[in-house]
């Protein structure tokens, strides 16, 4: 079992920055592929960024490339999402996801990010 707790969301003006954190419980964090997803009101949840177990392979959705950076600290069981140059269209609930090598997937409860114009 893995529990994920996100933090760092809030209200920011367009052009501002936020750093989201997702802390995981359990000894399996270092074996998990970690991802960030977001869901805006009235829309489907969408992929934002992903980082592999070692941090060597990273992927982003096109909408955030060059603005968002995903990273992880396996010693702290934490994955981060640094978000720069935020836009109103980035407004959403951001959730982290852990996918273990056995295939089990876990989600956090989400953190709200609101970007005002």
Helix content bin: under 10%
Name the poorly predicted regions.
Answer: none
**Structural class by secondary-structure content:** mainly beta
Number of helices: 0
User: Radius of gyration, rounded?
Assistant: 13 Å
- Largest beta-sheet details: 7 strands, mixed
One letter per element, helices H and strands E, the order comes to EEEEEEEEEEE
- Overall, the morphology is globular
Number of strands: 11
Mean pLDDT: 95
Outline the structure in words.
This protein has about 120 residues and is mostly beta strands. Helices cover about 0% and strands about 50% of the residues. The strands form two sheets. Strands 2, 4, 5, 6, 9, 10 and 11 form a seven-stranded mixed sheet that branches. It has a four-stranded antiparallel sheet with strand order 1-3-8-7, with no helix packed on it. The model has no long low-confidence stretch (mean pLDDT about 95).
Labels describing this entry:
seven-stranded mixed β-sheet; four-stranded antiparallel β-sheet; mainly beta; globular
Topology:
Layout: E1 4-7, E2 10-13, E3 18-24, E4 33-39, E5 46-51, E6 58-60, E7 68-73, E8 78-83, E9 92-99, E10 105-107, E11 111-116
Parallel strand pairs: 2-11
Antiparallel strand pairs: 1-3, 3-8, 4-5, 4-9, 5-6, 7-8, 9-10, 9-11
Q: How would you briefly describe this protein structure?
A:
With 117 residues, this protein is mainly beta. It has strands at residues 4-7, 10-13, 18-24, 33-39, 46-51, 58-60, 68-73, 78-83, 92-99, 105-107, 111-116.
